[in-house]
Amino acid sequence: MIRGRSPSIRKNLIALLMYTSTCALLLAALSFTVNDWFFSRSEMIERLNSQAAIVGNNSIGALTFDDEVSASRTLSSLSSVPEIVGAVLFTKSGSVMASYQQGAGPLPQRPPDTATGTMQNDLFVLLPIKFDDSVIGQVLIIAEHKYWNRHQAMRLATMTGLLLLSLALAFWLSRRLERVVTLPILQLTHTARRITESKDYRLRAEKLSRDEVGLLTDDFNEMLDQVQRRDIELQRVQEQLEDKVKERTVELEQLARKFEHQAYHDALTGLANRITFDNQLQAGINKVNRYGGQISVLFLDLDRFKVINDTLGHAAGDQLLIEIAKRLSARLRESDTIARLGGDEFAILLPEIGSNMAADVASKLTEAMNIPLLINGKRLQLTTSIGISVYPHDGENAVEILKHADTAMYRSKDLGRNRFTFYTADMNVRAERRMQLEDKIRQAITNDSFTLHYQPKRNVETLEIVSVEALIRWCDFDEGMISPAEFIPLAEECGLISDIDEWVLERAGREVLQLNSNVRAKILLSVNFSPSHFFKGKAVDRVIRMLDKTGFPSDCLELEITENLVGPDAADVSRQLKDIRALGVEISIDDFGTAYSSLSRLKQLPLNTLKIDRSFVQDLGKQGDDEVIVRTIISMAHSLNLKVVAEGVETQEQFQYIKRHHCDIVQGFLFGKPMPMADLEKLIN
């Protein structure tokens, strides 16, 4: 609803003052007029009574002596009073004795009933005439009303003039009073309007009075002080908020760029990730399809990275990956794309490069990887296996090209690692075989499909069986016997070797414990123990759990570990070996001579036995170098108070040589192939 503009406070105040003044003046004028009317009438009656009294006194003689002439002369003296228009002198009996008249109207012949009143619109008074307290007659005086009315009109005009003058004075005083009252309010209003329009809370209202408006001004200014403080605080908060918004905006922009970078790059190394690599590979394929040419894809996997990662920790492993990424990137062109696909797997896209140049690049990368790295003060030697596929020869799309490069990489690992291999069609068969075999291993663990064979170890001098090595065997329902050389390395890569080792330990412990209960001389049980137990820090717990579950005596158990486990920077491994040795379990180094462990390192470890690898034993009598190596190993081990086992002995010539050089224990087909427990019992008995 639209309302008209309200009158200002000045007009309202003036109107109020004028209304009040007018009412007061009108009431005063009305009161004065009414009072004056009654007063004038009373005054006139008094004046007529005075005239009547004079005439009465002068007429006493005439009434006494019934002198009409004297009475008429007395009444005629009233002609000097203009407002008196008539007079009548009545006798005691009420009859007219004499009369006087100036007007045209008749005079009354009888005295009226009242002492005062009006008669034919004229005012009259009737006064008795007394002599010696006796009424001897009455005198009637009649005055004309117009004189009184004229007098009243003059007084009313005077009153009206005074009223108008009073109203004008009241209006002037109201304006002055209005200015006195409203000026501080208007000043306050004006200041408030300026503050509203300018938003400048530093302005203050001027205090023009010491009354309630002055107090209101003080309160208003105090309120402005509070508002100004709030405004300053709000401005400060607003500035802080704007700064925060700016900072947050910058952070969000940085975060957006970071997320965008992370969406297409590896968070650890900063290299491209799988998404970016797939996009670049598809773009390269599209370019080849349009313009011709070739592109090559290299799939890299770090050899034995898991061992380093588990041994030195994930932080060191991450630092190693960062350094490897830098090293690989430095060997590539700007147009090449290198990506980390996950874990220790890298992929490289080489645009416009065929197989010959791809081989050169792979060779440079392999050489670069062979340069030792210093991580956290430790010198690490690392190698890589590389698979290469070339588009369009090795696949029809990006998925196939990358998959075939991955397949070729696994072929490099199968061929001994630290090399590169080009993809060939027959590799798909091997890749499918790996996937099929991995699934079968998992099922075999679940279904308890493995069995154990035992190969005896004999004392070289007496040829008595002193220990047996538990060897896992697997007869698949579909394929028959599957060689441990095929499924054990795959189980290590898939992380299944721990479950297999635990099964072997418990099964062999129970079977050999039963065997020892039926023989006179206790047989020592040798079990291959994967390095993964040590890398995970669970080797001691696994051994203790096996001993507790089977009740197998610890002094009849020997764990065979690989030589590469006891290399440098393996303090945690050494600690775990000492804890196992403290249980009474013996430790044997398997396949000694195939790695690079030093004699000083072996001396620091709690070892009991050293096994010479079969690769040295099988050429005894044929290669002079191997004979020297075997002889040196035996001599060195004895100097360290270690027993020596020669494995893979298959001929008398080999046996005689190790016997001649004082080897302690012999193991091989010449003295017994791996056999089931039932056959072993028959052999011992």
* Structure annotation, total helices: 21
- How would you sum up the major sheet? 8 strands, mixed, barrel
Tell me how many strands there are. Answer: 21
What value does the average pLDDT take?
A: 84
Task: Please give the oligomerization state of what you see.
Answer: single chain
- Read across the widest sheet, the strand sequence of neighbours is 13-14-16-17-18-19-20-21
Question: Whole-Å distance between the termini?
Answer: 119 Å
Radius of gyration: 69 Å
Which blocks of ≥5 consecutive residues have pLDDT under 50?
A: none
- Taken as a percent bin, the fraction of beta residues is 15-25%
Question: Which structural category fits the helices and strands?
Answer: alpha/beta
User: What portion of residues is helical?
Assistant: 40-55%
Coarse morphology = rod-shaped
Task: Compose a concise summary of this entry.
The chain is an alpha/beta fold.
